Amino acid sequence: MSKRLDGKVAIVTGAGAAGDGIGNGRAAAILFAREGARVLLVDRKLALAAATQAMIAAEGGESAAFEADVTKSEDCAAMVADAVGRWGKLDILQNNVGIGSSGRVPDIEEAAWERVMRVNVTSMMLAAKYAIPAMIASGGGAIVNISSIAAVRPRGLTPYATSKGAVEALTRGLAADHARDGIRVNCIEPGPMFTPMVYAGGMSDDMRARRRGAALLDVEGTGWDIGYASLFLASDEARYITGVVLAVDGGVLLTTRIGDGDRLGRGG
Ligand SMILES: NC(=O)c1ccc[n+]([C@@H]2O[C@H](COP(=O)([O-])OP(=O)(O)OC[C@H]3O[C@@H](n4cnc5c(N)ncnc54)[C@H](O)[C@@H]3O)[C@@H](O)[C@H]2O)c1
User: Is residue 220 classed exposed, middle or buried when 0-12, 13-18 and 19+ CB atoms within 10 A define those classes?
Assistant: First the structure.
């Protein structure tokens, strides 16, 4: 039976995750491989990418771990060259790397601001800069950028929110510029997912419950939810979709301060 990504070659940045946790990048990488793609697992910590590779190998999938810091131009060039050298082409780029950064503008250190822009935005531009010529040579491709609902619901995370707003603008710019090259570029806005990124530093049961409760569906989001959405956007099933921002948030963006589930029919 044919699989959804049969014959495709993919790069996933930030494909590692702490321990056996399932981050957004690791989930996407596992699902891409499960659906037949050969996946280059890029992480600045090689051991974390190697752990993802072992998970994929255990399912009979094909992948390779590659150490790179995607904030560096030469590393982005090297990861694309490795994928093409290893498997002959490039079809999919999953731009997953991102770091958090909180604070209000009067308190922000300029170095911290520049760091979050570099890690969250410049890295995606650099990865695309080298991936796009390889995709054109391969007859087209698909790029999936990971944003956050913080782009439209900032909540004291102004540096992070600004960077993710830029990721969404970058998505639209790339989509417009490269549609005629056969390259689709889409974006996912995760809500509060329970991934190592957010629980690695410790998370209380109360905080976990509040994050879960923020979603109208009252379901806890996981890396798999982002992985499955990425799989769809990366696959040919999404061949007529480009430049979109897809919220994967259990309905968080539908909530209002008036009160979840309240009807507004009491004269208010
Ligand atoms: N978890 C959430 O609640 C949530 C919500 C909204 C958006 N997101 C977004 O999801 C994405 C990541 O999710 P995740 O759970 O996979 O995160 P994660 O923190 O587990 O990161 C995955 C990997 O990225 C690697 N990495 C970090 N900086 C790197 C760099 N410069 N070069 C190469 N690798 C690097 C880390 O070593 C790690 O193994 C981010 O863009 C994040 O902003 C997450």
Answer: middle
Per-residue pLDDT tens over the stretch 232-265: 999 999 999 999 999 999 999 998 776 545 554 4
Nearest CA, atom 30, ligand 1? 69
- Whether the CB-CB separation of 56 and 63 falls below 8 Å is answered with yes
Per the CB < 8 A criterion, the answer to whether 63 and 30 are in contact is no
Domain contains 115? yes
Distance (Å) from CA 230 to ligand 1 centroid: 14
266 within a domain of the structure (yes/no): no
Tally of domains in the chain? 1
pLDDT digits (tens, 9 = 90+) for 5-48: 999 999 999 999 989 999 999 999 999 999 999 999 999 999 99
In a domain, 256, yes or no: no
The CATH code of the domain that includes 67 is 3.40.50.720
Quickly count: other Cβ atoms within 10 Å of residue 88's Cβ: 10
Per the annotation, the verdict on 240 as an active-site residue is: no
Residue closest by Cα to atom 42 of ligand 1: 98
Residue 265 lies in a domain: no
Span from the CA of 191 to the centroid of ligand 1 (angstroms): 14
Predicted TM-score (pTM) above 0.85: yes
Domain that holds residue 110: 9-249
